[in-house]
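Hey L., structure's done. Input below.
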Amino acid sequence: MEITDLTPAELRVWRAFPLNKGVDLRENADDDPADGASWGPGRTIRAEVLRALLLDGPATGGEVPGLKLTGARITGRLDLMYGTAEHAVRLRSCHFERPPNLYGARMRALVLTDSVLPGLTAGTLRVDIVLRMTGCRITGPVRLAGAQLSGALFLDGAVLGAPGAQGDPPPGPDREGSGERPEPVLQLNHATVGTDVWATGLTAHGRVRMDGATVGGLVNLDDAELHDPGGLALEAETLSVGTDLRAARLRARGMVNLSGTTIPRRLVLSSARLSNPAGQALRASVSTIGELWLRGTAPVRGTVNLRGAQLDLLEVTPEVWPERVRLDGLTYRRLTPHLPAERRLPLLEREETGHLPYSYEQLATAYRTAGDEAGARTVQLAKLRRHRRALPPYARFWGYLQDVTVGYGFRPMRAGGWLLMLLLAGTLVFAGEHPRPLKADEAPDFNPLFYTLDLLLPVIGFGQEAAFAPEGAYQWLAYLLVVTGWILATTTAAGITRALSRQ
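Output:
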């Protein structure tokens, strides 16, 4: 490109480039790049001029060239496909007429802060330092699939997509495919980010796709708003992060899909609002997560799926859970805040696939880890009562007996209470009406207390039962005490054996 072909605005940029000096074309510091289509020639830069600078621009000895441009209207398509820009590119508060094409390009640094773009095609882009799109408004798709960013990605306060807006179709290597789902507004699938992804306050009107991505540090989606009603607000299957995935105060309409993710420290969904009433609102099945925080989260609208997930800590109150959950195979070591077991148990009744004994065992283990043996026993007892519903009638009857008498072995003192009550009743009755001795000359002195004990305890004998024979209604009372004693002894033994087998 000949320098004589440049407009005065372009000439300023051309001359500033080798010196790495900034050019600010704004008339006012608060100019809105959304109005850039109306900016005149004094603020217009052709994309081909920027391409020529970045690929083969002038240099000055002893200086590091760089493009630093603010408040420009960039016409045409900035096409750096497969190109290499050895210099930092900083295009702040600019208005792009067409989506830049950076597919397969390699750049030192790319800054588009507060700019307005109709889209960005940058699949497999390589950036050595930083990619910054803070405060950008991008109506079309941002295609960064397979990108390799050595530093961080910044999307704080950016607004992606718009209801009903469509981006330009990508070139062949970046095409989404022939599926019916709309193209994601942000595509970071299979991208590699060396440090962090900062997207606090991000607003996305459409799907955010991060499946298969690898982030060396944290992903920060605090205060983000993701809108894809009935669809996938966040698609991040098999995402791997180095530390945390933060999404405090997240507002998500559509599924948040974190299936298969690896998050060594924390998944923070504190004070979030998750809504997908017709399907799954949160899916983190088969994930490995250090701590899952749902502190202060609003009641989830839609199913929560944590099947096969492995957690060290689960922090959630019962009010957060929806009416439908999938918890088969969920494991966690600690559960906070510590609440009475009775408040946690109703959740296990909401399992879509029905009764899952493992879920009760896992909850009991968490209470035992916290040192709350009483809570663990309450959960175990609830599991057996729940299982009893599926048994045939005769087995249910035996289960009721074990429950009433000894609480399936978890309430052993209950059997003592029954025995004491029956012992008192039998002693009072037989004290008023002595049974007839079988052999008057050989019978010991009658003792109503030990006679009743002889009837109740099938193992111990005091010689009273064999020496006396009650008659009439008293005989039926003796039979009742014998049968009851056997039942209490049998159920107590069965319950204690079951309890010991769990230790």
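The two ends are 82 Å apart (CA to CA). The CA atoms of residues 15 and 181 lie 47 Å apart.

-- N.
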